[in-house]
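Field log, afternoon session.

UNIT: design team B
ACTIVITY: writing a sequence onto a fixed backbone
BACKBONE:
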């Protein structure tokens, strides 16, 4: 049954990815991107990576896609700017050919990656989320907290820039 679900998720992901870059209406592109992100989350579930599937849905399909749609609504694009130019189609075909070559190279290279300390049985016994939590708050606690401080600084900086009255824009003129 897993190969059937994999074929479904993979096929819809490929079609949704193509529609994301090929559709003319930006809102339709956003809906195709939503379908793509949801089906990639389904692929994560098939890989028994439930935590990554939840992060995929919450962060990417939830927050990032909504932010993308808000920006599209604020931009109010003209119709001639939304159309896919024909010369870019050749670039996409070339990029697709390069991607196929890279996948074939990876499949035939024999690279297996670095083996970790935890076996699949040990992770299955305690669960994926628990294993990620234990590693994040034991071995990787300092990098985790450094990222948190950087994100806090970015949020405070964005609030200060948004609240500062009369700041100069890039041309040097006062608002």
């Amino acid at each position: 049954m897993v190969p059937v679900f994999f074929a479904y998720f993979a096929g819809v992901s490929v079609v949704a990815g193509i529609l994301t870059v090929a559709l003319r209406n930006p809102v339709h592109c956003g809906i195709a991107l939503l379908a793509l992100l949801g089906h990639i989350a389904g692929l994560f579930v098939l890989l028994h990576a439930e935590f990554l599937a939840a992060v995929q849905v919450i962060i990417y399909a939830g927050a990032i896609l909504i932010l993308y749609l808000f920006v599209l609504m604020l931009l109010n694009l003209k119709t001639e700017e939304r159309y896919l130019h024909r010369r870019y189609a050749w670039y996409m075909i070339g990029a697709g050919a390069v991607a196929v070559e890279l996948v074939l190279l990876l499949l035939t290279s024999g690279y297996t990656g670095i083996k970790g300390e935890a076996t699949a049985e040990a992770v299955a016994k305690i669960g994926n989320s628990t294993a990620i939590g234990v590693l994040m708050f034991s071995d990787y606690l300092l990098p985790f907290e450094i990222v948190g401080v950087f994100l806090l600084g970015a949020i405070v900086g964005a609030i200060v820039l948004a609240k500062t009255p009369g700041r100069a824009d890039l041309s040097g003129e006062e608002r």
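LOG NOTE: The radius of gyration is 22 Å.
NEXT ACTIVITY: expression trials, pending approval
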